Amino acid sequence: MEAAPMFILIVVVVLGIFVLITVVKTMYTVRTYTAGVVERFGKFNRVAQPGLHVLVPWCETVRFMDLQIRQADVNVETKSKDNVFVTIPVSVQYQVLPEKVFEAYYKLSSPQKQIESYVFNSILGHVPTLTLDEAFEQQAQISAAVKKELDVVMSEFGYNILKALVTDIVPDAKVKAAMNDINAAQREQTAAQARGEAEKILKVKQAEAEAQSKALQGEGVAKQRQAIIQGLQASVEQFKSAVEGSTARDVMAMVLLTQYFDTLRDIGTTGKSTTILLPNQPGTVNDLMTQIMAGFSASNANFGSGVVSAPRTPVTNTGS
Fold first, then answer.
1. pTM for this structure?
2. Domain 70-171 listed as CATH 3.40.220.10
3. How far apart are CA 196 and CA 204, in angstroms?
């Protein structure tokens, strides 16, 4: 009698476990941006949308397909038209089309590998026709060509290609260093030309300023000499009218002596003077006057031949 209740209890427990497993295998949920692929006895039956769903017990199974945007990073090594090997990183952003979940799940076993293959094919068919400089300039065109080719192929498998970005073009380190050297040399050449033009302009302006300064100095000296001559002429005329019998030569001799004594006075009153006139004795005034007059006589004698002599007075500089 005790064996029967024990057997019934075991049966009840087994049935409870079976029911629990059935319920667990029957009810399931599909998350947002996920699609459920339902198979009945291994055959595709339907696509389950996000939410709570029920399976036919022991007949159906569900597998989940991610509908979020994914990214495949591909590094393609190729050669440019000018025989420079470069590495081109390409980032492809793709997504499963909700209306083509069946194609995306069953037709491709490894979609990322497939995308990488088509990226390689597109890059290797496009970049070798461009030089390195053209490749840098046409990154956007390379990206557009990769995306266009992927769109055509991957749409048949239920994938939408959102972006195909060529993020960089990386040449060999030696090539990059050479490009930097070329750029630096070109910039240095431009800077040297600019400096040369600036120095040229500066020298021209300095020459123009110097020429203008000398011209003004010459005008000043000429006006100064003219004023001196006019002053001397007026003085001579006044002296001749005041002193009867005096000649212009006498007046000029007196003016020269006056300037001589004025010079001696200025030298004596200046504490730091370094100029001494020789000879400088009181008895030599008559000799100086004779020399000045002889100079004027020689000047008048040589005036007609175009040779003008000046009276020679010894002058020397000392460090005192």
1. 0.52
2. no
3. 12
